[in-house]
Specification:
Structural class: mainly beta
Number of helices: 0
Number of strands: 22
Distance between the termini: 30 Å
Order of helices and strands: EEEEEEEEEEEEEEEEEEEEEE
Helix content: under 10%
Largest sheet: 4 strands, antiparallel
Shape: globular
Strand order of the largest sheet: 4-5-6-7
Radius of gyration: 17 Å
Length: about 240
């Protein structure tokens, strides 16, 4: 649909209609969720629809109804700010990671913890489930990305070819490749089961903040830049 959800340093999550110059519910306060006590660093919509998860400085993940703006559940098990979260493809689980160097996998309906992954040596800044939900990939300022089994936490592969903080990652739609972006100003495409590099894109000239695949996985979009010099750029490039 035409809906966008954003979280910010003002502690709110806002719901937008992406039609030009139109915010969902107009300017009414129902369009703003104010359940957090501090900056919101991560927002994710359930693939099953109907609910949104958000997380941030207050060390909580909150699941809430975007129509009523009412909180359904809060997860309080992290020991620091939360920077990344993702729903499993079936919408039944959430993976969340942050300042405590840990990825928590938990039941999105009950809040029950299922698994803690603690192999990073720095904060978790990005994570994503594989399309078949068997694996989770997590990235960190420790310059590594670990691919691990979502049910056991066993590491399948570790990618360590970035030379600076890993900021973003995405699985290809077929689950056979991962794209990662970094403060080292490069985008890498690699095999998640062998950690073999398939391609390196280095045309940005600035830090990478976000990466994404096209649905046919023929193209990758990457965006980045720095606030200091307003050098923002989004580039779309072909894989083949």
């Amino acid at each position: 649909d035409n809906t966008l959800v954003s979280g910010g340093y003002d502690g709110t999550v806002q719901i937008w209609n992406t039609s030009p110059n139109h915010k969902l519910f107009s300017s009414r306060r129902q369009s703003v969720y104010r359940g957090h006590q501090g900056a919101v660093y991560a927002v994710s919509c359930s693939p099953a629809g109907g609910v949104i998860a958000s997380a941030g400085l207050d060390k909580t993940v909150q699941i809430w109804n975007p129509t009523q703006l009412s909180k359904i559940l809060s997860y309080h098990e992290h020991k620091g700010a939360i920077f990344a979260l993702a729903w499993s493809p079936d919408g039944k689980k959430i993976a969340s990671g942050g300042e405590d160097h840990t990825v928590h996998v938990w039941n999105a309906n009950s809040g029950q913890g299922l698994l803690n992954f603690q192999k990073h040596t720095s904060a978790i800044k990005t994570l994503a489930w594989s399309p078949d939900a068997r694996y989770i990939a997590s990235g960190s300022p420790d310059k590594s990305i670990h691919v691990w089994e979502s049910k056991t936490g066993n590491i399948i592969a570790s990618y360590r070819r970035h030379t600076d903080e890993v900021t973003s990652l995405a699985w290809s739609p077929d689950g056979k490749m991962i794209v990662t972006g970094s403060h080292d100003k490069t985008v890498h495409v690699w095999d998640p089961f062998t950690a073999r590099t398939l391609m390196i894109y280095n045309e940005h000239g600035n830090i990478i903040k976000a990466v994404a695949w096209s649905p046919d996985q023929q193209q990758v979009a990457s965006g980045g830049g720095q606030e200091e010099d307003k050098s923002y750029a989004i580039k779309v490039w072909r894989m083949y």
